[in-house]
Amino acid sequence: MSSLTIRECVEALEKHLQIEFSSFELAKRALTHKSYVNEHRHEAYEDNERLEFLGDAVIYLLIGHRLMEMLPQASEGELSRLRAMVVSEETLAQVAKHMGLGELLLMGKGEAQTCGRQKNSVLADALEAVVGAVYLSVSWEEVVNIVNRLFSAECQAAIEGKAGFDYKTRLQEEAFRLSRATPFYRLVSEDGPAHAKQFWVEVSLERRPLAVAQGRSKKEAEQQAAKAALEKFQLAKLSE
């Protein structure tokens, strides 16, 4: 388990998603991996697999809808291909990593010791469970906005045919379009042992901070900061 308490994990997740879950127990269930339940059979824990089932359906529907909006002339076959790219395990895991979801999970010691918090399959399933809990907690309009925000860059990347999407390039393009300025990246801090360092990078535009994100290298932290900034731009568009 991470160094945070489960309540702190729920609060961190709510802060990232900008919502409040309908109940603490629902949010806790979304963050509970089956390995934790297996190691705590004497306690009343429920894993997130049922919520994963629900969240998978919600994401599948909303990504399909979003792609139809973005590509009004695309054929059914093209839309299906693009949706498969966006809802792939790898893409879901990347979104989850950006959220820091792995560190928020209740996970058994055995699974955690085998790098379970970094496994694509675990992260993808956890993200689906979180979306399932979101669906049960807020209005449909809020669910649509949250999923669109989480996957906005991934939908655009799929349409543009970019494998290994470069968020820094995308942010530079967006910044130039908006203000003819170039994003600036600054290393805020770093800590941890040499084999497991964490880096925090801030990205700003015209001296205005946009986002701060962390990564296991400066390059990864810069990419994550750029992705967070792109999400802010997308959120601003949705609120217009």
Compact overview of the structure:
The protein has helices at 6-17, 24-30, 34-39, 49-70, 76-86, 89-99, 109-113, 120-135, 140-160, 167-179, 218-239; strands at residues 184-191, 198-205, 208-215. It is mainly alpha-helical and 240 residues long.
**CATH level 1 name of the largest domain:** Mainly Alpha
Mean pLDDT across all amino acids: 87
> What is the CATH architecture assignment of the largest domain?
Orthogonal Bundle
Radius of gyration: 18 Å
Question: Total number of helical segments?
Answer: 11
- Following the backbone from N to C, one meets helices and strands in this order, namely HHHHHHHHHHEEEH
Strand order of the largest sheet: 1-2-3
Low-confidence stretches: none
Would you report the number of β strands?
Answer: 3
- C-alpha termini separation: 40 Å
Q: Largest sheet at a glance?
A: 3 strands, antiparallel
When the domains are counted, the total is: 2
Task: Quote the CATH topology of the largest domain.
Answer: Ribonuclease iii, N-terminal Endonuclease Domain, Chain A
Structural class: mainly alpha
